[in-house]
């Protein structure tokens, strides 16, 4: 009987099996108590267990969400739903030094439009680079709707490397999505405008306003978009929307849906019905199909026109060459999703209750047979909706975006108005399950659900409203991403995650083990250009030189001092700080801020960063490391002195605030010797264990060895001064020797604790 | 026997008590399975249960953490450790429109230094306003270390309202902390500089460089700092550090510690030992004690000198008047924490192993008796360390910051080098417990641990290094805040929380129910000034007017259109958009972005926001709502047309892309009537329930009623056009009528679901 209960009661069984140690009994008692106190149901505890990730644990998937109007990319772990990073993309962000150091300013400057800074982006759709249609974890692309641009993020260091400005569009939405081998990144227009960027009155909308779809050529080897090899296909002034690339049998094609094919022009201020009415009157809008592989060949063959210096295939050429077709779709759709096998795509109209499954086979047959239902006003052949469809399924009110499961034929569609996710089978056209979300879901995301190999397991519902889900924080609410378990037949809500900054529109999630980021740079690295910095400095080789009227400071950063510590210039001079972080230890980032000059840098281990400014005000400007990098981080400081124009450097001797004697020296040396004894005991512990089997400890030992070498250096200086009876400097260098010892001890203790907690064993010498 | 197991095995007992329904058995089985799959221990499950917060749940505490160099404030819930908001403070942030709308630009402009923008802040220490020493949840203050400034955040809407620039300091650290009734906010210097802001060579450091402590007068009624009533006390060029206000018996005093009282001036570039060595040579630094109440009286009595137009009490005056004293403290301290009863303060030296508990009673007696040990080089009386101490306790290597428990005499100290938190009793001088953290803790935070009434329960360890704790995301790591359960005798680690943006230095946590934020503004509200906006517009009263050469657009935002939809100006004109969000529904924020002109606004319900810019380029610039606010949010769009300089408005009639007939009209009206039937059934459901007992539903019903009134309006227009046989406009207005119906249905369905899920009951009419 006991055994039977033991078997049915999971948690109990576990305790029984483990022998009911008193701590386990305590845990049991406590769980019941905690559940009561916190009002948790068993289902809640199960959800907690499915998402909770203990210290040091890893998530199975990593999600990249657009940061909406924040202009950034949000990185979070699944299932823990903990946000790991906001990556600076279109908006300057000082913690990362993004838009503050000269190197990243160059990246942001690429995003200028007609010479003017744009200091935000309305990011919408991130895309992970693919190889043969599978996520490869190398690059991430994201678009800006407000000012048509695409950014390239390198996932080896999670930094933005490039921003390209769309040369013809003034509004976009349907990007970024990648072709199965990341040859191209697509960006489709949204609100139509004249492609030449001229002023054209709205009365000429139908004739002179246009949409387009741009294919950005990605150079994988360089990790950059090649603007010169990129091109666009002109489209009618239908508000183009989301896009996707074909794969497998549909590889070579791209698909872009649209709304407001009514070409309605608002004017509520003149008593006309607003855009929302005029743009949703027709029952259907159009899917745009483009044969991009053939389009690229046509561009190569010189069939494109140049608009603003950019290759554009006109509608006429596209129609003549047979690379552009339209297919009706339920009105005001949002979401264009090609199936993993490339045989179908699914579209839903937001004002409809149906999801429409289109058959590539049927579509290609219609095209092959030139079986067109009509032509649009611009001469583009229109395929018949019914002849193109595989099936239509009633999934709920306000269907929007569909993502694929690991089980063939199973998909999930977000239902905006009903605030639900519908699970259904698109092969058989059958609804399988529904779950309520909170509230008004926009896009949704399954794991690698955009790729040829969806991973199933989890779904995230990107809700547009949180309303009452979280502790109130004023009129501007966080967004709510809800994690849903899709491993069983029934969907189960696991977790509500507030998004504290930005409104993500779309997200992609990759298996965590596909990402292989580095944790330090080669020493003296310009991370934005991925090359050695011309401004790197080596320890002991720091210098201040005037070149072409600019005072260049080639400095270094290391726990816990900045070299140089004093920089004096004349008012009006341009100063250029170049700082190399000499650390090799993981997570030993140093910052650098200068008072009044709006200088704020972040230098991760190995990185060289620069800040150039005109020292146009005389005075005394403290600088310091902004990262709490060591016990003495507050002492990691310096002064920029700007003497008034026309004055000479004072050069007066420093008036010491404190002087030290032989007694001070002797006392400090004794402290150091005592400290060394502690260090030696820690070193003995570590080296007597199999520490080489633990990568983090190997790294720590490497770092500690560095510190001890620095200590030996300072010790020598100290002893040299003492030998010359200069006990003042002898004492100070002895103190510096001690500081290195403290750092070595800090690292050593961390290594020792790691070994103790991770089951290291004693080894024979 | 079974019963005995039942009693000991918490979870099992629960199931037994509940009768073992099959779903519960499933839950049990699942828990065991999940634990096995995810490698969770019982302790992990317990921690999960202690932190997991189910959908719609509330946290017990809300934490405000500095955002470090991000320049922002981070808000998160405890124990769920979910980040709820990043509040824009010193750094522009587009999601919030902060630094993008004219209103918030004015706030940031207050933070300019000598006319130049500073686009970041190095935020360190947030402080919640207090009443009688208890957190009152009304205001939050935070400092900027890099460019000495204090920001005021109003917690009624979580927005930054004011930034003040310190008139004499060029570096600070010891702020913001508040007096027990928030009369004053303290800000203490860090790196000494000439207070006049003149250039002075470092050779004159001892004579002409100074520190200071500034007391900012806070006007509670206005919710703003009154700069004219604020003052400073000059201090020696010791690097002042953290501060705290006295309370109870020590009310009227403030305490500020320091480092580098050696007054060492680095110069590693010239072969001198670096600051870190010279600044940590002496065994002790100084606590600065200031009688601020008396200081305020002295200032009022005209005893202050004006420096840069600001009242400063000189060291000489402060000494003469007996309001300034020094007490030695173990070197390089960090953390200055007055006990809840105001009888003690605790300080620890970062290079020491002790925490030092000072007795206010002893200190005041020494002052009363003029029992001074010495004077410093600036004539300030120094109290004897030993005579001032209550006790010193060995707490670990690298102690830093101490926070108070709800149990009298119990405190927690962060131990940087040992990577631990030590729990100890400061009355009895006894260590009670230690726990390892990951890694290198800086500050720590207990619940309301800064106030006269600490709440115990939880402690957060603000670690400086995360290293291997999280999924790698490149060389720049997130920070790691670890939640620790302090409700029992032993501390228990509950949760690792990555901080995705910024390096928080300090945090404060308040009981959630002390916060009473609003979720909407009065209509037409300038939230930064807390007054009606001069630029508000009412529905139907939108207008475009030229005033003093500026084209003012008085517009409105509502699901799902912007009024006006078309704005045409001449190249070179200044355009000023003023947009009022007419929504009354919680969380119905609208955004507004204009292509190319770097315009990006966020308008929460009721808010009026403005964007002013010179339309210096001719062309067509789409604008749109950046928030996914409704099913037709993509259609919430418009065009800014900038015609070339010297040209006239074209005024040509719009060429309709689509025209509608009587059939279209009839069809649309039928759809609308069908939709109305659905709405009626939802309304019938809601009104037959006790919906008035559910505040969120009452708000939804209010919103739905609004939408239905709009629908009625559009219906009338539609019918009027149809009556005149204008079926084109009749159809379009019928569509608009339908759009309002869709919104009403959306809201109604949400209300219905809420009632169903929250146990509403049928009521008799």
Automatic annotation (TrEMBL), chains A, B:
Annotated Gene Ontology MF terms?
copper ion binding; cytochrome-c oxidase activity
Q: Where is the signal peptide?
A: 1-27
Q: Which InterPro entries match?
A: CcO_II-like_C (IPR002429), Cupredoxin (IPR008972), N2O_reductase_N (IPR011045), N2OR_C (IPR034205), Nitrous_oxide_Rdtase_Sec-dep (IPR026468), Nos_propeller (IPR041114), NosZ/Cyto_c_oxidase_sub2 (IPR051403), WD40/YVTN_repeat-like_dom_sf (IPR015943)
Q: Provide the species name.
A: Terasakiella brassicae
**SUPFAM superfamilies (alphabetical):** Cupredoxins, Nitrous oxide reductase, N-terminal domain
Keyword Metal-binding (UniProt)? yes
Chief localization class? Answer: periplasm
Query: Could you tell me which Gene3D superfamilies the record lists for this protein?
Result: Cupredoxins - blue copper proteins, YVTN repeat-like/Quinoprotein amine dehydrogenase
Which protein are we looking at?
Answer: Cytochrome oxidase subunit II copper A binding domain-containing protein
**Localization per Swiss-Prot or TrEMBL:** Periplasm
Q: Which domain of life is it from?
A: Bacteria
Task: Tell me which residues make up the Cytochrome oxidase subunit II copper A binding domain.
Answer: 548-656
State the UniProt keywords alphabetically.
Answer: Copper, Metal-binding, Periplasm, Signal
GO CC, one annotated term: periplasmic space
């Amino acid at each position: 009987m006991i055994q039977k209960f033991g078997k049915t009661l999971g948690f109990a069984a576990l305790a029984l099996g483990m022998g009911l140690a008193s701590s386990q009994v305590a845990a049991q008692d406590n769980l019941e108590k905690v559940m009561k106190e916190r009002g948790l149901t068993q289902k809640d505890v199960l959800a907690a267990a499915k998402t909770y990730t203990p210290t040091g644990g890893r998530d199975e998937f990593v999600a990249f969400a657009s940061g909406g109007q924040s202009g950034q990319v949000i990185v979070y772990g699944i299932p823990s739903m903990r946000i790991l990073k906001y990556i600076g993309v279109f908006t300057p962000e000082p913690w990362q030094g993004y838009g503050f150091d000269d190197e990243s300013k160059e990246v942001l400057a690429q995003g200028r439009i007609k010479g003017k800074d744009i200091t935000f982006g309305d990011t919408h759709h991130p895309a992970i680079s693919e190889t043969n249609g599978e996520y490869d974890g190398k690059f991430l692309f994201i678009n800006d709707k407000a000012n048509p641009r695409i950014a390239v993020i390198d996932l080896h260091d999670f930094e933005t490397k490039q921003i390209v400005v769309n040369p013809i569009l003034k509004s976009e939405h349907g990007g970024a999505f990648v072709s199965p081998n990341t040859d191209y990144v697509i960006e489709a227009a949204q609100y139509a405008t004249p492609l030449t960027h001229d002023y054209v009155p709205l009365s000429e909308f139908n004739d002179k306003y246009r949409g387009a779809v741009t294919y950005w050529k990605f150079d994988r080897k360089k990790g950059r978009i090649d603007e010169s090899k990129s091109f666009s296909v002109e489209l009618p002034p239908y508000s183009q929307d989301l896009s996707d690339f074909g794969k497998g049998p549909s590889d070579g094609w791209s698909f872009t849906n649209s709304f407001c094919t009514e070409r309605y022009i608002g004017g509520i201020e003149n008593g006309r019905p607003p855009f929302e009415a005029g743009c949703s009157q027709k029952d259907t809008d159009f899917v745009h199909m483009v044969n991009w592989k053939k389009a690229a060949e046509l561009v190569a063959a010189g069939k494109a026109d140049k608009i603003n210096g950019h290759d554009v295939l006109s509608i006429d050429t596209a129609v003549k060459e047979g690379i552009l077709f339209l297919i009706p779709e339920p009105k005001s759709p949002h979401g264009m999703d090609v199936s993993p096998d490339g045989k179908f795509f699914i579209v839903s109209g937001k004002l409809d209750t149906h999801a429409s499954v289109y058959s590539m086979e049927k579509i290609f047959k219609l095209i092959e047979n030139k079986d067109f239902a009509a032509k649009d006003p611009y001469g583009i052949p229109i395929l018949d909706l019914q002849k193109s469809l595989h099936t239509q399924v009633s999934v709920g009110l306000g269907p929007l975006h569909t993502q694929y499961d690991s089980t063939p034929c199973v998909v999930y569609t977000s239902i905006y108005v009903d605030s639900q996710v519908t699970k259904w089978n698109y092969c058989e056209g059958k609804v399988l399950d529904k779950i309520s979300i909170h509230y008004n879901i926009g896009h949704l995301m399954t794991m690698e659900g955009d790729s040829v190999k969806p991973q199933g397991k989890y779904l995230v519902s990107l809700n547009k409203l949180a309303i009452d889900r979280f502790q109130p924080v004023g009129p501007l609410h966080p967004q709510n991403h809800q994690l849903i378990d899709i491993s069983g037949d029934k969907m189960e809500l696991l977790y509500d995650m507030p998004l504290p900054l930005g409104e993500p529109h779309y997200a992609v999630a990759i298996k965590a083990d596909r990402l292989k980021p580095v944790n330090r740079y080669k020493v003296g690295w310009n991370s934005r250009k991925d090359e050695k910095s011309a401004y790197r400095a080596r320890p002991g080789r720091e210098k201040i030189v005037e070149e072409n009227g600019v005072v260049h400071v080639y400095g270094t950063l290391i726990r816990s001092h900045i070299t140089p510590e004093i920089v004096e210039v004349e008012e009006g001079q341009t100063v250029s700080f170049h700082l190399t972080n000499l650390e090799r230890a993981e997570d030993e980032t140093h910052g650098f801020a200068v008072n009044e000059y709006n200088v704020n840098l972040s230098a991760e281990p190995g990185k060289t960063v620069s800040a150039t400014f005109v020292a146009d005000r005389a005075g005394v400007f403290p600088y310091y490391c902004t990262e709490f990098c060591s016990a003495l981080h507050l002492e990691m400081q310096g002064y920029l002195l700007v003497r008034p124009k026309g004055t000479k450097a004072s050069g007066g001797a420093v008036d010491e605030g404190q002087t030290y004697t032989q007694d001070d020296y002797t006392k400090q040396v004794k402290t150091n010797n005592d400290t060394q004894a502690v260090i030696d005991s820690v070193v003995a512990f570590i080296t007597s264990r199999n520490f080489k089997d633990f990568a983090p400890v190997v790294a720590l030992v490497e770092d500690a060895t560095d510190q001890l070498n620095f200590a030996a250096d300072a010790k020598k200086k100290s002893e040299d001064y003492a030998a010359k009876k200069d006990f003042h400097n002898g004492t100070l260098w002895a103190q510096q020797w001690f500081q290195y010892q403290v750092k070595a001890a800090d690292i050593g203790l961390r290594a020792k604790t790691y070994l103790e907690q991770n089951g290291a064993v004693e080894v024979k010498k």
